[in-house]
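Q: Structure for this?
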Amino acid sequence: MSLNISKLKDKNTTIILHASDIKLSYNHIIYWLPALIELNMPFTILLRDKKNYYRLTSEYPDLQICYAKAPIDVEKVIKSHPNVKAILYPSNREKNIHLLRFIEPKHIFIGSKNFEQTFKLSKSYRAYDEIWVSGKYMLDKFENFFEDLGHLNIKIIGKPFFKHIIDKSKKKDVSPLKKVQISYEIKHNNPQSLSAIMNKLIPWLKKDYVLFLDREIQDEEIQCLITDIDSFLYNMFVYNVPILIFGTKELFIEKYDKYFAEGIYFFTSCEQCKDILSKIEIDDRLKSNRNDVLDYYIDIDSTLQNSFLKEIINV
Amino acid sequence: MLKKVFITIGKLARREMTFTEFIHKIREKLFYSIKQKFTSKSKKNLIINADLYKKIRYILHTGENVTGLSHIDLWLPHFKKSNIDFLVLVRNFDLYTTLIKKYPEENIILARRKSDIELIVSRLNFLKVCFYPSNTGNNLHLLNFSELKHIFIGHGDSDKTASAHKYFRVYDENWVAGEAHIDRFRNAGFDFRGLKQVKVGRPNLKETLLISQISWQDRFNGNLNLLYLSTWEGVYEEQNYTSVYFMDSFFEDIKDKNIFNTIGIKLHPWVGRRDVNLSKINNHLNKILSQSNIKYNLYDKTVPVEEIIKKSNVFICDISAVVSESLAANAPIFVYIPKDKNIKLTKSKMMYEDYCYTFSNLDELNQKIEEVIINKRDYLKEKREEAMEYILGKKETLADKFVDRLKKA
């Protein structure tokens, strides 16, 4: 099978979401799906690998999903969508060229969940008509990278996926501290790792702590996050809770954007961690900084006011 | 029943074994050799046939398979003329092996994966510019290096929509033959303001342009050498612009009329790829022409088109880049424009009708040949000369602008 357009129920769709990253296309689709469904407009998902095609069609039998292997197959898909207005790209991959050669639709790069943490800017982004970013953080990155943006139109749309969490976290209180999430990478025989001090810290915590080895946050009710430098995610800021990182600020800045350090408590020993945890219940001094970091990274207003949906409708 | 065999095949030990053991051993041996062959080939992700200690400033990159050979053939001689150290970077094993056989003296590298590209670029401290003759997805791996300049140089001039679309915006510069290509971008309906358009002419057509300074009627001692250049039947029927379906009747008709002194035919190498009815068209045309006394030549796909254009002074073409190649010869060009197709072409100031004698059927072709060739009324001569400047960048070509620009890139 090189092409499957047999499931095309609605050829009047105006939006195509093209995911061509073999390893990540499933995650990319899942990330954008709630927002697209909320759109209440027909859309088509175009995949370039069979495995994810079968997985998504079995999980979402009602969605319009196509699989196109070769450029010729892509051409057939485009021809079967005579009203397509915009093609959305969550990743900047080699196979995007097969769609970018079509002049009529608007080509919009929308990024993915952790795009801001993993991106590598290059001139290849100029192929798109528009780039939709989560906040001023990425807007500044693009503007600083390109001396002249030329035809590129960059729009801030927030991160619709986190709308619910951002909204819910606005009223979050850390006192009394009941639920702490700890996520870190296990590094055996490394006394310098967070795992090495966990044995001392966990009995002291006496909180209803949650221990996750997966970096992705599962529990929206958490009130505090303890992690190490390697496990840190920019998206941890959406929970509006104190973030404690095992390591020094200097080491953190070597790996991540220094701007994020302004909203983080750093510790290098169990004692320091205990001290920070005791104090934040009384005075969470970085609360305002955290909010600034989040608003710069993910535009809060754009997220809460559904800018993504508004832009899609107007495309 | 055969229970024991004595084997002396290959390197298998000369010893007694059961028949089952023998079969097992042979199977094992076979699997091993297949596996070896496969892995030895697949392991060749990166092959460096280049002197990386040279001050290599340019990369000529093709992400194509063996079809990229013609792109390299087109540009390599002109890169050499610049006297600047460069390397040819390819992504396909078969193309690589073909190239190192053909150009053993050149710096050629095979880098199949993105990581191989990253490794190579990190070793080239003097690298400044990457040149791309075609748009392929894997160009992206080099385009990721923002500190380098990226220049699209193409591989011919075509009115087809593939020659002007949004992906071109990833490059810093687009080097084109003449103003026509820039107009195609202007008329394509998208914003490309960040892409610098640079006119460099068509260096591979310089020799033909020099020959064309003698009027086509007086060239070759007054002989008329007809060249037919077809396209193929396209991926889809609606893109089927080829005239091969009826051109056999044309050759059947003219072969004994003494209008032309020689006939040359070069079919697109992909003719017959989609429509199997056309797979033996070469044999069919050969049979027709061999029945007359006319001198004819059915050119092989490996013969460069510009070489045979130089030897011709009347052209019959289908819609494709060969029209502009033939234009360099400044001689009548008859172009097939199918009537029943919705032909999607990019728009420039001059359309085929302006400088070519267009036809949609055999009658129309015969009628125009009679008027232009037999009655010697070449009424599009002036327009053709205008098109040579507009499409090919005649002035830039004769002034060696490409090599000039290359030195300054």
